[in-house]
Design brief:
- By secondary structure, the chain is α+β, with helices and mostly antiparallel strands.
- The chain folds into two domains: about 40 residues, no CATH class; about 120 residues, no CATH class.
- The chain is about 30% helix and about 20% strand.
- Strands 1, 2, 3, 4, 5, 6 and 7 form a seven-stranded antiparallel β-sheet that branches.
- The longest helix has 14 residues.
Length: about 180
């Protein structure tokens, strides 16, 4: 049929149906790769070596929830008064925005720590590894005061007492002011 409105293709489907199915199938491979990279950036590893490599890559800087600038630290992660900057992954951002008392597994926060000269000098990270915070045991705590050497982290384990003891004052162990400024 030369003038048919719809051409039939293999399997008896019209060309219009095939085109619709193709368009409805979702993003292109390039978009899928971008989404996968974004998703991978959201999943912060709870392993010292993998986490250090992740931090060095700067992938967390793609988080939409981040402080707009560095500011003096009020806590012990660096000398009080030296600059820090906080980044929240989507899971933690949504949880804080909703006012949830418990954050979901996979929630994470990255705090960059700066020297007096303004150079990045390390990170403090918390990743929720279990649905139950269990007095801080359900969080992986990590802090390193170097951007090039991961051999001597201050903390690198679930349930680190020093970290959990201080962070217990936060909402499900998160002390960062929210919304971020």
């Amino acid at each position: 049929m030369k003038n048919a409105a719809f051409l039939t293709v293999a399997g008896g489907l019209s060309a219009a149906a095939v085109a619709f199915a193709f368009l409805a199938a979702g993003p292109t491979r390039a978009q899928s790769a971008d989404q996968a990279a974004s998703s991978a950036a959201q999943d912060i590893p709870a392993d010292s070596a993998k986490l250090f490599a992740y931090l060095q890559s700067g992938a967390y800087r793609s988080f939409t929830a981040q402080e707009t600038k560095q500011h003096p630290s009020a806590g012990p992660h660096t000398k009080v008064g030296l600059d820090v900057q906080v980044f929240l992954n989507d899971a933690l951002d949504r949880s804080l925005a909703s006012g949830a008392e418990q954050h979901p597994k996979g929630s994470a926060v990255v705090k960059e720590m700066y020297s007096a000269k303004g150079d990045l000098r390390g990170w403090a990270v918390a990743v929720k590894t279990a649905a139950d915070s269990a007095d801080g045991q359900g969080w992986y705590w990590y802090e390193v005061k170097s951007t090039t050497d991961n051999r001597r982290p201050v903390a690198a384990a679930n349930g680190v007492g020093l970290c959990a003891g201080c962070h217990a004052a936060g909402r499900d162990f998160v002390l960062s002011n929210y919304p971020l400024e």
